[in-house]
Known about the structure:
The protein is α+β, with helices and mostly antiparallel strands. Helix content is about 15%, strand content about 20%.
Amino acid sequence: MIEITFVEASGKERTVTAPAAGDLMHAGRNADIVGMLGECGGTCGCGTCHVYIEQHWLDRLPPPADDEADMLSLSDSLLPESRLACQIVLRAELDGLRVQMPEVQG
């Protein structure tokens, strides 16, 4: 199991545990994180699992694939640290990951 801290748009922090498998979106949805919608179920088809990854964690992730980059480009709240949580595969090296939820999804 790994720990992930979600910072909700309100500023409330919640640390959850998740298996080092699966993806960040499902970990957030399973923990009822406010703002983690994931309406497409993790198919990179909606952009409603948008998160901001702290910079030092971004360096540990592979760059976004073209479909993720395309979906992110539709967001009104796009930042350099934007990622789709459904595209972040959880693994042991991400233990302690911190992510910020945007104020609005989609």
